[in-house]
Amino acid sequence: MKRLSDIGTIKEILTKHGFTFSKALGQNFLINPTVCPRMAEASGAGEGVGVIEIGPGIGVLTNELCQLADKVVAIELDKRLLPVLDETLAEYDNVKIINADVLELDLKRLIAEEFPGIQVVVCANLPYYITSPVIMKLLEDKLPVSAVTVMVQKEAAQRICAPVGSRESGAVTVSVNYYAKAQMLFGVSAGSFMPAPKVDSAVLRLDILSEPPVKTDEKQFFRVIKAAFSQRRKVISNSLSSGLGMDKQSVNDLLNRAGVPANARAEALSLNDFAAIANCLK
Fold first, then answer.
1. pLDDT for 211
2. pLDDT, position 82
3. Nearest 5°: CA angle at 85, between 81 and 86?
4. Taking the domains of the chain in order of start, what are their residue ranges?
5. Labelling 246: which of 4, 29, 140, 209 has CA 20 to 30 A away?
6. pLDDT for 128-152, tens place per residue?
7. H-run or E-run covering 73
8. Is the model's pTM score more than 0.90?
9. What string of H, E and C letters represents the secondary structure of 174-211?
10. Do the Cβ atoms of 160 and 180 come closer than 8 Å?
11. Nearest of 57, 63, 55 to residue 33 by alpha carbon
């Protein structure tokens, strides 16, 4: 299928299948012909590699992935796109479309069944409204994947890729850095999509770590992160007191044992600081 990034071709295919865009599903299809080849290449797709794609849309990125990878499994929530994908991906015999909500799928089982014995990566143009839930599911499920390459809202990409301990960092920054090394790859303008969103996007890659960079009680670690960033403008002692349901003196004692200043703000703390607090809390 040629010229899938051409507006005329897209409109023709969608009209043929009676498809209309859903704002609720955050549907914005890529029409910039340079983006998907770069994204597919950056994902690590290649010989001996299987790819999980989330939200293939009309299959522009899927086409590029199919040309590189041994096998592509694309997970699409909108069943109205299934006949569209049957048409746009008809020339490939190494692709499988699954009509499902990725947040409800057992991805470990899917990988075991669809990609036995080969390396797996994830590649996706994610709807803005599910960016964080999808990324955290991919990381928290501890899947046997080597990298996750996703296109997200530019602001979200900047937050995820910000250095831990910087003013731009947040709960998602710390959480992602526990599981992976994040890097921003390139920006994508709003005009690269149809319909055009109101903000620009960016492609980032998460290289999954073989083990976390800090030793800590994982459950308590993420409990501390959630509490610490629940009130960003307050100092760490106040946000932890509120978020953990502890009195101020107990929190101050906890921070003292962890070696963290009570008047510090969550955004200024390192992974080691959060790990120390979690370990003392345990």
1. 95
2. 96
3. 120
4. 7-208, 218-281
5. 140
6. 889 999 999 999 999 999 999 999 9
7. strand 71-76
8. yes
9. HHHHHHEEEEEEEEECHHHEECCCCCCEEEEEEEECCC
10. no
11. 63
Contact 30, 193 (CB under 8 A): yes
Show the tokens assigned to 36.
Answer: 């998907």
Q: What is the pLDDT of residue 233?
A: 80
DSSP states of 81-114: GHHHHHHHTTT-SSEEEEES-GGGS-HHHHHHHH
**Most distant CA atoms of the chain, gap in Å:** 67
pLDDT value for 252: 96
pLDDT reported for residue 2: 53
**CATH superfamily of the 218-281 domain:** rRNA adenine dimethylase, C-terminal domain (1.10.8.100)
pLDDT number for residue 163: 96
Contact 162, 173 (CB under 8 A): yes
With a cut of 70, list the residues of the chain below it in pLDDT: 1-2
